[in-house]
């Protein structure tokens, strides 16, 4: 058995597709009308479809998981994030952990938690 994808729920799949392309270079591999697979195994699921499937409301900003990306040019990434998406809500601005890794944590357009850090 192997893990194939990670699915996140989004309000506007087209806006989210653009967001993940703009910031992380992810491209669409498959669009199944509300269920979109991007490169690197990220799946965007339309909120209404997911709610109908699980029969429950969606809770954003639950902070129990995050999408983690690594970027060598972390300062360049933060500049791009602030330029393209100035309304970004941060958990923490660029910081350095005690072990030397630099990271920034923020929410995507729908409140999904993202961490971008320098490679370990």
From TrEMBL:
Top-rank lineage group of the source organism: Bacteria
Pfam hit, one: Glyoxalase_2
Protein's name in the database: Glyoxalase
Domain VOC: 2-119
Species of the source: Pseudobutyrivibrio ruminis
Origin organism lineage: Bacteria, Bacillati, Bacillota, Clostridia, Lachnospirales
